[in-house]
Design a protein that fits this description.
Chains B, C: GO terms for molecular function: glycine dehydrogenase (decarboxylating) activity. The complex is a heterotetramer, with two copies of chain A and two copies of chain B. Chain A is α/β, with parallel strands linked by helices. In chain A, about 35% of the residues lie in helices and about 10% in strands. Chain B has two domains: about 110 residues, Aspartate Aminotransferase, domain 1, CATH 3.90.1150; about 260 residues, Type I PLP-dependent aspartate aminotransferase-like (Major domain) (Aspartate Aminotransferase, domain 2, 3-Layer(aba) Sandwich). The chains are: A alpha/beta, B alpha/beta.
Chain lengths: ~475, ~450, ~450, ~475
């Protein structure tokens, strides 16, 4: 299809603004833009059709099963969207006086209260805009805490080799050196390796639990203890909280700081890559360092407290992706105390059920009960017929399913990482298993066909090498 | 209690058994008893949809929606066309993930490619990323882009938004680098101070300038940029996006990186977010740009195809060696900006900018004529300006009673006003009358 | 001035020329000068979107939205799930036409087939059409279905909604036939009067009964239907759709045709429309049913396929011999009803009906206990009932000041109250307190 | 795909309502439903996906070019939808006291005022819900008018053979006998035939002008005069008003009564078949007969007037499809005095332009300049290679266009009736013409392929005969 620029015709457009109703003032020439202002010019009909066509060339949770491991592509409830669209939320200026924004402040207050209870943390903020942003914020809390104690020599953050790439990247941005520790044969933290890694230069440990293999680390209390005894702090990456929400709390596992992805566990939509929403929580010892402003309460009235001298400052403007938090709060109010643990229960059940079905043919990377996701290794298949994890993933696209996460975690060869989430029905899982098992047979019978997949999408496999070698990153106007 | 779980208890039983478990308890056997929660969470009872709607609507009604807004300071009330709201509500756009799987995500990839093009056109830059979290974050990320060996200190105009300065400082704390404020004088960045500061510092990585600045002033960006360049520092401009329609582009001012807060492009005020950080740069810095970038290529059959490209910059490939940790961005907000720009078109966007300019100047004249509300600065401004105010609290309370959100109180006792295309003449005239009243009381 | 025309003046010129014209004037040369408008219309100047929104929003704000509604009488405030609003806003559903072209319209055809099934399930009938305009229109069309040779007179219970009676009368004027009202007695249709009337009239085509009737009474429909059938007349029931979840189905009451106003199934009050007329009947009358009907068939390859069927009944085939002239119906409202019913499910719909029933009875007890507000009838009722009222105007004004839309004033001085699942206990209690207050004043 | 009933599983569902907060009262058994209440039971996720899938198997104006003749499938502006969704309109009870519904009454008042000016009528109502409903209402006005003059003998309505089927059907419902008059060789009313048809039994004439061939009847003043002189009244079917809006007015052509389709000329969406919205207007002599209630004004306040003793009564409940009228008013306010005639100008231009392109190959039924639509006859093509209008229409489905109206009007053999509307761009018309011209060549070269079309839709041509012969009109539950 055409780019919107290719659909543009000079002189077309929509009539959005009235004529100016005050005397016009001309901008002095020396400040004025010289370059032509080239933007699309389309009638509203053509505009609308363009974006309809783009949507049809994409795939969302509403379009079908979306078992993208580690991304928790659960259903995004429609009531959440309606509440986030209330003018009483959308029309509020972030710098309105607090007495005119009590509703917004109450949203932040309630979300903090509920999520602290869910995670076992003492305080929580919502300023970070996404998971990685939350990791970074959490690491700065750790850094500020050490510095406040005059301890500047702790320069290392320990990260397991199964971690998301954001973990080491966030730690590096926070000025830390990364110590990668290999996973044990069971896919979990190797306690001996950890013991060797810690020391008086250890600022902390970042851990996702359950980890990216979908395994809950049974030694979690020893792990956090080892770090604490070495003088470090423990950061919980909440990417996989969906597996344990209402069942186990990071705060009870010994973690000092956590981040949550509201767009994973708390059902806010992913928006094609964002906006997400993050919460960063911590134990009270770290609370003085949290970003400002903080929501505070006095005489039953909420206000924003900027007077936190030990705060790390701000990681973005204002108070976070507020309308995302409205969605998460709506979700929490809907689920309540009984509903929250059911999320974890059914997420873990769905993963184990699907894994059991697939194990008939596929090799599971770690053949033990999983949590909310599991990892297949297609190394055997590749060895026997040359069909790769990539081939299987691309073939799934032709079956109206989104592929799983491919080639991650890095420690599993030919990995496919599958996370069904709790909002999928048994029939959807049965159909997916059937399709994947058929693909397995097809791979053995006709590997060539698998290399050609997808065949029913608007493009075949794109040339990514060419894209990176000769980057074309914008439309080039003729003139 | 609401629930989004499809399975009935009977189905769950069946599935448990098929997976080899006899209870939910068995499912969680990996979790040591000692960290298992042995009680229900202390949360309220779950609610039905009807109750949730009632409760959230009640909370929303504890806010006051001001019919008339004369406050900006980083968050602006512009007109949002119906097409923007409706098009971006498409469920597929809303619920898709980052387009890692190119073949099934061409629509979203193309929308990002189009967004990148529009940002480049507006800024005059050669490369744009797919968005970062917001304007302050974009500024901090841009500063990080410019760090190079010994050059690590970030110079920031004191006439920048306080949140931007604070965010840059926080990121500098992370990176163990220094931030140096360049003083403001009479509403504009002090060029000679900048020159003095930079001349003495060989560690200067970059200079960040907000345009128009926090006080609304249109800075002499090209001249300031030259000072930075002369000292071997990179020049970053943080631009109000609406103003880009009429002001000299960052490219024309010599900037190396252009960033800004994209909220005015179709995003509601929303108590501060989600907003949109846009970032664009010269080609030379392309491989230092953080975040997603979509590139054009082709498939086997020669069809035009779009992919996430230059991924070697990113955290999921490069891990601790990545220049940024960004993963989720503000994709739907970037789409919103694209739809906004396509709906407004060049004429509409220019009209919005010109009306902001004309109306702000009309308002400045009206307000400035009220005794006690004189303009603080004599500088050229875009759609924000600062006036004195004899009694801030009384004035703002009076305006509030009339449904008007007045200018933002500044630490020095002035008010920072903002006027956009949404403010009708009658509102401005009424504002001036009310200020007269406030003054006379 | 707004415009949705893509073409620029230059393009129009080019196109005119390609089509062989030199001006717009030439295009209209078929139209005699004498009927050409030689002036601009006396309409306001066209407005930009911003102005239109401002103006329409101002008009909307001249209405009062009552937070609490105790009024029904043909238009009911029920809870509308978010899924209903969001799903039916899909642009394809919104902008498609009637699915004449089956292959490209399977989605809409299937949605109608599903709607037809749900209406059949609710009513116990065998065939449903794809909808007509509203409940009153459905009643009038049902009456027309029952006309047969000498049997042309329509008997209508006087306890039906006045608009329904009026609409049936208007259609009878069109068809040159008679309407005879069957009197109401103490809130219910007078069975013995019906018997007497029908015994004397061999032209009786049908008897229309509203269930629950206008005053909320649950009629003894089966007994009334038997009287109609005994006289050789068909029996039509006009049903409140929510009540169908718990009341005897029209089929169980022996009805030949079941119709009703579908608005409670997810449509907002909307000052009266668009609403939804549903119609279903026994198979024997299928070919007399007006409007679209979707049927299941298959394509060459054996795929299940849906088509508009039995079109030989319809105006576009049969022209003046068609039984009805209906063409456009209320398809999107039928879809709304389907989504509503699928979202509520059997348990949810039953809960809605049971809560209407319980809350109305609770309210009747509370209101009826207030002096002067005694219940008028001793009949069994569903979610509406009539009370006396000492001073209608004073009472309603008091309630209005408290944000409550009270019962509908009836000609006899009573108030017709309605209570649904949306009315919380605290609202009902407050209502009773206010009525006490009104009474004491 | 599955029916929603086939996706249903006992015990699933959404949690919409709270528990009852008053003491429960049980319905006496003798009133209670005996039949099981079988409705779909799905999770919200599956529900949402079901309807997403149905939407994807359909085609709307947002999906592409929709030149369905006589249906005026123009763009449906998004601002109209937003205004119709304002709680200040959606939450208003139709029986609220008038002083609390002044906004709604003003909408009706303004829409009446504007549309009277556009049509040259004196009064207008919005109670009818759709075009055919409006025709019927208009005919009842005619009937009531004759009756009020004691003239009961006028029992005939004259209808040209090119008319929509609704015209004769509406007239029949209004108790009239239909006199069909054949069109002249120019496609317009044959004046001599009309003169022969009128008499003292003539109640009136129904005419669509421009007619369904897209031709404006140049003798329109003589036509209405002939009818008037015979004592009849003239009804204007507004189906094709889009061609002349702002350019010529039915009131100036001699029409006494009209109906308008708001969902055609005034841009309100078609909704997959409805709701439409109709307006019925008339000259003041007929106004006393208009349906009640009427909007009236007194001292600057609006109220509903039920006291119209000569009224025909009501044709449905309340005041019409109100929220549709909100959309139409929004559209009229947007266009204004200059915008309205531009609609007609560009609609007629687009039709003539597309006709000119297609004439290179296709045979136009009446080869004269057209108004907003034109009719092709594919008789020649059929004769030469056996490819029918149906085949061409079905082939268009494979090209992401909605087919034109087929086999109508009845007086043209192998008719395809094409109405592009004014909201289509030149490129869209160029692309459509190119596609249609290619289909013509394909028909000659490979007629078999055309008989098989469509091949890229979710089904091939369905067996309509079987559907009518053995009607299956609902899902049959197993039990």
């Amino acid at each position: 299809m055409n780019l919107i620029f290719e659909e543009s015709r000079a002189g077309r457009g929509c009539t959005i603004l009235p004529a100016c109703d005050v005397p016009e003032t001309a901008l002095p020439q020396q400040f004025a833009r010289k370059a032509p202002l080239r933007l699309p010019q389309l009638s509203e009909n053509d505009l609308s059709r363009h974006y309809s066509a783009l949507a049809k060339r994409s795939f969302g949770v509403n379009d079908g099963f979306y078992p993208l491991g580690s991304c928790t592509m659960k259903y995004n409830p429609k009531i959440n969207e309606e509440m986030a669209a209330l003018p009483g939320f959308t029309e509020i200026h972030p710098l309105q006086p607090a007495h005119t924004a009590q509703g917004c402040l109450k949203v932040l207050h309630l979300a903090e209260k509920f999520l602290c209870e869910i995670t076992g943390m003492d305080e929580m903020v919502f300023q970070p805009a996404a998971g990685a942003h939350g990791e970074y914020t959490g690491l700065l809390l750790i850094k500020a805490w050490h510095h406040s104690r005059g301890d500047q020599k702790r320069t290392k953050i320990i990260v397991p080799d199964s971690a998301h790439g954001t973990n080491p990247a966030s730690a590096a941005m926070a000025g830390y050196t990364i110590v990668n520790i290999p996973s044990g044969p069971d896919g979990c933290v190797d306690l001996e390796a950890l013991k060797k890694a810690v020391g008086d230069d250890t600022a902390g440990l970042m851990l996702t639990n359950p980890n990216t293999l979908g395994l809950f680390d049974k030694n979690i209390l020893q792990i956090t203890q080892i770090v604490h005894e070495a003088g470090g702090l423990c950061f919980y990456d909440g990417a996989n909280l969906n597996a344990v929400v209402g069942v186990a709390r990071p705060g009870d596992m010994g973690f000092d700081v956590i981040h949550l992805n509201l767009h994973k566990t708390f059902s806010t939509p992913h928006g094609g890559g964002g906006p997400g929403g993050a919460a960063v929580g911590c134990k009270s010892s770290l609370a003085p360092f949290l970003p400002v402003p903080r929501v505070a309460e006095h005489d039953g009235k909420f206000y924003l407290d900027d007077n936190r001298p030990q705060s790390i400052g701000s990681v973005k403007s204002f108070y976070g992706n507020f309308l995302v938090i409205v969605r998460a709060l709506t979700y929490l109010l809907t689920l309540g105390k009984e509903g929250v643990p059911q999320v974890a229960e059914n997420a873990v059940l769905n993963a184990n059920y699907l894994m059991a079905l697939l194990k008939k043919r596929y090799q599971v990377a770690y053949d033990v009960p999983c949590m909310h996701e599991f990892v297949l290794s297609l190394q055997d298949l590749k060895d026997s017929c040359g069909v790769t994890a990539m081939d299987v993933a691309k073939s799934m696209q032709d079956l109206e399913m989104h592929p799983p996460t491919m080639y991650f975690p890095l420690i599993v060869h030919e990995a496919l990482m599958i996370e069904p989430t709790e909002t999928e029905s048994k029939e959807t899982l049965d159909r997916a298993a059937e399709a994947l098992l058929e693909l397995y047979e097809k791979a053995l019978a006709n590997p060539e066909a698998m290399h050609r997949a997808p065949e029913r999408r608007v493009i075949g496999r794109p040339d990514e090498v060419e894209a990176a070698r000769h980057p074309v990153v914008k439309y080039e106007y003729d003139s | 209690m609401g629930s989004y779980i499809p399975s009935t208890p009977e189905e769950q039983k069946e599935m448990l058994s098929a997976a080899g478990f006899d209870s939910f308890n068995g499912l969680f056997s990996q979790i040591p008893e000692s960290v298992r929660l042995s009680r229900l969470l202390d949360l309220p009872q779950g609610l039905s949809e009807l109750e949730v709607r009632r409760k959230m609507t009640a909370i929303a009604s504890e806010n006051k929606v001001f019919p008339t807004v004369f406050r900006g300071a980083g968050a602006y009330r512009h007109y949002i066309p119906a097409a923007v709201t409706r098009i971006t509500a498409n469920e597929t756009f809303l619920t898709a993930y980052t387009p890692y799987q190119a073949e099934i995500s061409q629509g979203i990839l193309q929308s990002i490619f189009e967004y990148q093009t529009m940002i480049c056109e507006l800024t005059g830059m050669e490369v744009s990323n797919a968005s970062v979290y917001d304007g302050a974050n974009a500024a901090a990320e841009a500063a990080a882009m410019c760090r190079d060996r010994g050059r690590t200190t970030v110079y920031v105009s004191a006439a920048s938004h306080p949140d931007t300065i604070r965010t840059i400082r926080t990121y500098a704390f992370g990176a163990d680098t220094q931030v140096c404020l360049v003083p403001e004088k009479d509403g504009a960045t002090d060029a000679s101070a900048l020159k003095d500061l930079l001349e003495q510092d060989k560690t200067a990585a970059c200079f960040f300038l907000q345009q128009p600045n926090y006080f609304g002033t249109i800075e002499d960006a090209a001249a300031l940029g030259e000072i930075a360049h002369a000292a071997g520092a990179k020049f970053i401009m943080g631009c109000n996006p609406i103003s880009l329609a009429v002001l000299k582009t960052p490219a024309e001012c010599g900037a190396d990186v252009a960033v800004g807060e994209g909220q005015p492009f179709g995003m509601p005020l929303g108590f501060g977010g989600p907003y949109l950080g846009f970032m664009a740069c010269k080609k030379a810095m392309m491989r230092r740009l953080p975040g997603r970038i979509v590139g054009q290529t082709s498939d086997d059959a020669g069809n035009r195809a779009f992919v996430l490209t230059l991924q070697a910059r990113e955290q999921h490939i490069r891990r601790e060696k990545a220049l940024s940790n960004i993963c989720s961005n503000e994709a739907l907000c970037a789409l919103t900006a694209s739809v906004y720009l396509s709906t407004m078109g060049p004429d509409g966007l220019r009209a919005a900018a010109e009306q902001c300019y004309s109306k702000a100047h009309y308002a400045a004249k009206k307000i400035g004529a009220v005794k006690g509300f004189e303009l603080k600065n004599q500088t050229e401004f875009f759609h924000e300006f600062v006036t004195a105010c004899p009694n801030v609290q009384k004035t703002l309370e009076l305006l509030e009673r009339h449904g008007i959100l007045g200018g933002l109180p500044l630490p020095d006792g002035g008010l920072l006003w903002c006027v956009t295309e949404c403010n009708f003449k009658e509102e401005i005239d009424r504002l001036a009358e009310l200020l007269e009243e406030a003054e006379q009381e």
